[in-house]
Amino acid sequence: MQRARDAGIVRFSYHNPRDAATDRHRSVDDRPYGGGPGMVMLPGPVADTLRSLRFDARGQKQPGRLICLSPKGMPLSQELARELALGAASRPSADTGGHDAPNITLVCGRYEGLDARIEAHFPVENVSVGDFILNGGETAALCLIEAVSRLLPGFMGHKESGTDESFSQGLLEYPHYTRPDNFEGLPVPEVLRSGDHAGIALWRRRASLALTLERRPELLEDAPLTCEDRDFLRKLPASRIGRNLYCALVHYPVLDKDKNSLAVSLTNFDIHDIARSSYTYGLGGYYVLTPLEDQRELLAAIMRHWTQGAGKRSNPDRSAALSVVREGAVVEDAVADVRRRTGQEPMLVGTAAGIRKTSPPGIISFARIAAILQKQPVLLLFGTGHGLAPEIARLCHAFAPPLRWHGGYNHLSVRSAAAIIFDRILGDWR
């Protein structure tokens, strides 16, 4: 950064709101209206400081884009850094007939932040560097400065360095290796030492794709992928997180419309559609639970037709989806099978259409469920009829949030609700 500044690639000026304070103590903060802890930055010194930036010493128009570093802002991304570095460059100026520099003014809050009226008087854009709290915006501003500056022409030692990195192509960057060839028993991949430039390029692309799918799959949605990229991704195994998620469709005890416990019959659509969703999202298994012997015989007949008989021959895709179905009588059967398969006790998470008024258990977010899957299997319990009976709810460690708790109508079929919940936990956007 220092060399770039010396070369005139970047230029900085600093302005302290305390210099615009008018009282003897040069105060820039005061207590918040309405009470509460902390202090709020006074609007006067901040506004006066911003208004003083109208022109700099060279007569160039200021302040350019006005960005406040704040946890409530849009995420700082490579795309935003590129926009700030390139999008504002060399705009014609009506005042001078020349060109303005791509000025950016960064406002760094302190204490509890800025008085909200600053945003009403100035075109402030809020930008966040992450979902965490800092003492002030200065450290966040350094992140933005470095992300933007390194994209300016002449900043990087090699012009490829700014584009052949994580996020620049919409993907995480491939792994890097240097000497020695073998470090503590771990060799450098043979292709990287082969001198085959085409082979190296292919290895790096595929390593980047695989790493992105594993760590940040949501990036793939906007990444520029070729047909070859997509074919490669389709051949990769399902994620371990998906295999740690299981679901069970409970047919007893469930509630009727009068809140009485009873058993309900199997539904062919529920068996097929939840199996298809489970297979699509790579779940470890889908349990159809009923203690009724005739219903279990019906399930066995359906499974034989689609996994062994004419159904398998006529529709192999459906047969593959139904391969994840397992039968059981009660929830404890599913728990025992998950324990046998994983060697761990699964966390039981119930589902319901509305906010449960009884407690415990409490509500757990979909993001939290996804995080738990990193370390422990989770068994989602779906109820037929009018939902899980209290005796099943008492087995649960937590409940997933209702899908549309704030809406006036929340009566999805269980197969639709299951598909949506799988996506909220495992979907690529996460």
- End-to-end Cα distance, whole Å, is 34 Å
Query: What spatial form do the alpha-carbon principal axes imply?
Result: flat
Main β sheet profile: 6 strands, parallel
Multimerization status: single chain
Determine the strand fraction and express it as a percent band: 5-15%
Number of domains: 3
Summed up, the helix count is 16
Given the helix and strand composition, which structural class is it? Answer: alpha/beta
Number of strands: 17
CATH class of the largest domain: Alpha Beta
What is the CATH homologous superfamily assignment of the largest domain?
A: SPOUT methyltransferase, trefoil knot domain
**Strand neighbour order, sheet with most strands:** 14-13-10-16-15-17
Task: Specify Rg, calculated over alpha carbons.
Answer: 29 Å
Which whole number gives the mean pLDDT? Answer: 89
For the record, the CATH architecture of the largest domain stands as 3-Layer(aba) Sandwich
Share of helix, binned: 25-40%
Secondary-structure blueprint of this entry?
Elements: H1 2-6, E1 29-30, E2 40-41, H2 43-51, E3 65-75, H3 78-87, E4 91-92, E5 99-100, E6 104-108, H4 117-121, E7 124-128, H5 138-149, E8 182-183, E9 186-187, H6 197-215, H7 227-235, H8 240-243, E10 245-250, E11 254-255, E12 261-262, H9 268-280, E13 285-289, H10 293-307, H11 310-314, H12 316-322, E14 325-328, H13 331-342, E15 347-350, H14 366-372, E16 378-383, H15 390-393, E17 398-399, H16 414-426
Parallel strand pairs: 3-6, 3-7, 10-13, 10-16, 13-14, 15-16, 15-17
Antiparallel strand pairs: 1-2, 4-5, 8-9, 11-12
